[in-house]
Structures are given as C-alpha cells and as structure tokens.
Amino acid sequence: xxxxxxxxxxxxxxxxxxxxxxxxxxxxxxxxxxxxxxxxxxxxxxxxxxxxxxxxxxxxxxxxxxxxxxxxxxxxxxxxxxxxxxxxxxxxxxxxxxxxxxxxxxxxxxxxxxxxxxxxxxxxxxxxxxxxxxxxxxxxxxxxxxxxxxxxxxxxxxxxxxxxxxxxxxxxxxxxxxxxxxxxxxxxxxxxxxxxxxxxxxxxxxxxxxxxxxxxxxxxxxxxxxxxxxxxxxxxxxxxxxxxxxxxxxxxxxxxxxxxxxxxxxxxxxxxxxxxxxxxxxxxxxxxxxxxxxxxxxxxxxxxxxxxxxxxxxxxxxxxxxxxxxxxxxxxxxxxxxxxxxxxxxxxxxxxxxxxxxxxxxxxxxxxxxxxxxxxxxxxxxxxxxxxxxxxxxxxxxxxxxxxxxxxxxxxxxxxxxxxxxxxxxxxxxxxxxxxxxxxxxxxxxxxxxxxxxxxxxxxxxxxxxxxxxxxxxxxxxxxxxxxxxxxxxxxxxxxxxxxxxxxxxxxxxxxxxxxxxxxxxxxxxxxxxxxxxxxxxxxxxxxxxxxxxxxxxxxxxxxxxxxxxxxxxxxxxxxxxxxxxxxxxxxxxxx
Length: 592
Description:
- The chain is α+β, with helices and mostly antiparallel strands.
- It is built from 19 helices and 26 strands.
- A hairpin with a 6-residue loop joins strand 4 and strand 5 (82-85).
- Helix 1 runs parallel beside helix 4, helix 10 crosses helix 18 and helix 11 packs across helix 18 (523-539).
- The model has no long low-confidence stretch (mean pLDDT 93).
C-alpha cells in the first residue's frame, strides 16, 4: 500500500504533548473579563539597573520589561505547554515534519508608534537574538537554521532537524521588537527600551530607585482571548531596595503594596504591625502544581577542588537543614529532594522498570558513587536538628579523608598540598543568614571558607564568567521541560560564557537524557526522561539543595482582587485588579 503522507495543517493553537483546553473559550478561566481597570500594582525588587534591554550580553536590566513586548503566541497558566494567538493569529506546520513552521501575523498588530508588526520585524528580532543575545538564549534557539520572510504577514522558521518538535512552540515565546530600534539600539546600554507592541510603555526609570510602566490606552491586543480580563492596572511600579529588611519596612509604610513573602520568619511573626491588625493587609498562601524552584548552593565544577564527587558529598553533608528550618524558618519549609520537587516530574522511590530501561545503558558512563546513588531511593542527609550536625560533619570529614585530603594543625589541605579554600559569592544580604551557619560548618571541617559579597553589576559579570568557587542559584522549572535543560546541564553550555550551566556539568549520560527529553513524543515520555534526569542530577551531588515550599505566600494591601479560582501554575498577577473604593480606603489609612 502507498504511504499516506500527512498534509500541513493551519491552526490557531499549538501544544506540545498536551491537549489544548481553551481553543473555543471566550477568555481564560482565571480571568475576569469584566474586571475594572485603573489603579497601580506596586512591587519590590533588589539591586539596581542601567539598561532597559535584558536581551543583550552586557548591562543590568531593569525589572518588568516583559510588559513592553508581545510574543507571537502566549501560554496558558493552567496547562503544561499550550500556546494561543497573540501577535500571530495562526500557524502552519507539518505534523510529520518538525523542520519548519510558518507564523502568520495578525494584521491588526501594531507597535506603540502605530506602525504594523511585520515579518521583517520578526526576522530582525531573531537574527539579533541569535547573534547578539545572551549565550543561553543562543543555545536555547540553536535549532533555528534560518528565518525566512514569505510576505509582510508570514514568516517561516526553518530548523536544523525535524526531531525537535518543541522548537515549533519555543520560537513563539520570544518578544518581538521593531527592526528600526534593533538596527540602532539593540546593543546600546540605555534606559530607552526597544520599540515594542506590548500592553505597557515605560513611564519613568529612576536608576537604583524605581521603574514605572503605564498601560497603553491604544494597545492593539486588548481584545484577544488571552488578554480579556488581563492587564487591568493603569500603572505597574517596581521599587528597588538594597536589602529585604528595608524592603519589608517599605511594604509596611505602603511604599509598595504587593509583596511575595519569601522570608519564613516574616510570614510567621512579622505581620503583627498596625495595618495588619486593622485589617488593611491580607495574607494568602496560593497552591501551585509547578515544580518548586530548586534553590541551591552550587559548586563550580570548573574548579579542581570540586572534581571529586566525595568532596561534593562532603559539602552536602555539612548543610544542616533541620536545624535551620527549626530555628530560622519556623518549620515552614521542605527540604528539596528533587530538581522538580512538588510535581509529577520528581523522581521518587527506586527507578521503575521504564526508568531502568533508560538508565541501564547509561550506568557504565557514571562513576561508581553516582551509579549507586542513581539506583537507590534518594534521601539527602538528615541531622538531629540540635545545631551541631555532628553526624553530618563526621561523615563529611571521612569523605574528605577518603578523597586524599589531610589535616595539619586542624587545617584542611588538598591532596596536592594546597590549602582547602572556598569562597562563596553572593549579592545582597537576603541569604546571609543561610550562608553564615553553613560557612561555620565548613570551617569546622577545616576549610578556609569565606563569604564574598559584591554589588549587583559585579555579581552579574562574575556569574556570567563563572568566576566563583560556590554561589547560590535557583533553577526554576516548568511542567514541560525541554530544550532549556541543555543550557542548565549540558556539556556544551559549560564552556559558553553567559550560559545557564552555572555548575559546569559535563556528563555524557546527562547529555543523552537531555537530548531524549528534547525529542520526547508524548507526555509519558516527558515524565519518564525527566525522572531519569532528576536521578542523574541528584546522584552527581552537583549542588547542595536548600529549601522551598509548594505554595506561594503573598501579602498585599487590601485593594487588590482576583477571581475565586486562581491558575494552577502561577499566581497570575496580570489577571488581578484594583478595587477603587478599597484603594481609596488604603490611601486614607496611609495618610493618617
């Protein structure tokens, strides 16, 4: 019988190993299409900034620039990886050949200056990202072979292979800039943003103090399905602080009015000030089904000190989560046992039969300790919570001795005779209360351990060049991991300045699993390969997992409102709104 060849299809929705729920919906279920507009959303952030462009390799970008730009398509906060129209009204692709896709732009799409968004702007944007953008973005988009202009509305992406079906959606997630501003300003460190088509424009940028955006009354896309009930605030403001303690005082005084609360002691005991007692501030714990971001001390594998897995095991054993959770965090946190903690993507128990089929050919590529840990039920070291971590430090000491380290006058030396030294890099002081007890434990082991605190720009540059022994990092994951995993853990990314492989992992088995995950043909395969990847990452002891929780805790002055059922994968702040009467009461309260 002749082979039946599938014909290309044209559709208004794209999904990757998932089913689109809202193709015919008038609006997304967590949006209130009748929400009133007006008011200000004000939030806090840290550090400083000197640039309005986060898509180049230099400068420190301001917070909130995503509000300036539309993407070709946009995702749902209730689905793993489903995309609905934004700048593009529809796409054409071949289900059997993922080597190309055509995005057809909405003829109504306009930049702020009233000019049409065209395929020329799309091509110019991706050409700039691929040649001048940050290295992790170039890596993420490396499957793009060519961007072709078919006509004013249609742009064709041609890919290097037909294997990566995720890339069809990935290109739809990036902001589109006007070609005119790319030609003149893409690499300029400036507080003037590139020309966009998004719902907000930059109103004011006071370096080191605040950034304010104003809603564009002529925003072309306000009636799109994904935008109904969205972008309800007239203004969005980010207030900058140098420390969380000062930021918290700013929240108390109403300098900003919406605060994701990431400090357990504040959540447990800090909300006792008059505005809370007077009912002017609300606290909410919002459930999420997405993986808890993996916050960890990472060890720079580019440094010889960390090449031996026994050293990395020792540094893991030195961290006393149980004591910290009791004395500092009011028992509010969970120890992160997975890089995908709190989701179906986290590996649990011992490997399943399906996982073993993937793992078995990889085992010879692993060193013995990693091989054993990959096959075992994973459990991080656990202390008695009394603050001495005696068992953990004794275990760590023996691991170091087994690795050839030795002691002289209570000081630890490496096998080559060099003093065992570790400098931990950080910016700001929000993690100092976590780092200092850990450093004390390293000193008890005999390390010359120091904390190096630098300003924001220096920190960004040192991170970009991997200039640290240890540092902290956060690996945020979605429910549909794919191509971005190569930038986190891939061998090639370890040698690329500015990429996301802050650990410097080079592991052939991990590379193979990341490639398989990227080529997954179903949701079951995504879950399977992510479980295996999780096991390999944990068993390599590449980082010291810290803590997290499966809920997002927020506090806000009682002027913000949201629908009863929030999205499952995010807080969805863009769909909240201001109650004007309540805001007037808050204003009056603060003026007393």
